[in-house]
């Protein structure tokens, strides 16, 4: 799911520099930012994914994925991927 939906804006490397990012304002979140990673809970991430940016008071450019409400395993995997971007080798 990440590579098909999220990476278009957030990039496969999570830096927020996906192919569609150039046209967006504000720019997509950089998941590699350790300060941001520490500032957000897994539940906040889930809410943002499910409701979209506008649903949580952020950019309306990020669409929600409400269909994932019925697929918690996919949602959990997305959170794992996002968190992995914040870990440095």
Explain what the structure shows.
This protein has one domain. It is mostly helical and 89 residues long. The chain has helices at 2-10, 34-39, 42-55, 72-85. Helix content is 48%, strand content 0%. The protein contains 4 helices and no strands.
Question: How many structurally independent domains?
Answer: 1
Write the H/E string, N to C: HHHH
Parts with pLDDT < 50 across at least 5 consecutive residues? none
**Assembly type:** single chain
Total helical elements: 4
Measured as a percent range, the helix fraction is 40-55%
Approximate strand percentage:
under 5%
Radius of gyration over all CA atoms, rounded: 12 Å
Q: Characterize the largest beta sheet: strand count, sense, and whether it forms a barrel.
A: none
Q: Looking at the structure, what is the overall shape?
A: globular
Overall pLDDT score: 95
Structural class: mainly alpha
Number of strands: 0
Kindly report how far apart the N and C termini lie.
Answer: 24 Å
What is the gist of this entry?
This protein is mostly helical and 89 residues long.
Pick out its properties.
mainly alpha, 4 helices, 89 residues
Layout of SSEs?
Layout: H1 2-10, H2 34-39, H3 42-55, H4 72-85
């Amino acid at each position: 799911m990440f590579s098909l939906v999220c990476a278009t804006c957030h990039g496969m490397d999570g830096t927020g520099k996906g192919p569609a990012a150039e046209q967006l304002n504000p720019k997509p979140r950089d998941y590699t930012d350790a300060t941001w990673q520490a500032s957000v809970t897994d539940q906040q991430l889930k809410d943002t994914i499910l409701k979209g940016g506008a649903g949580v008071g952020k950019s309306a450019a990020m669409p929600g994925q409400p269909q994932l409400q019925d697929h918690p395993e996919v949602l959990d995997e997305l959170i794992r991927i996002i968190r992995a971007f914040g870990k440095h080798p």
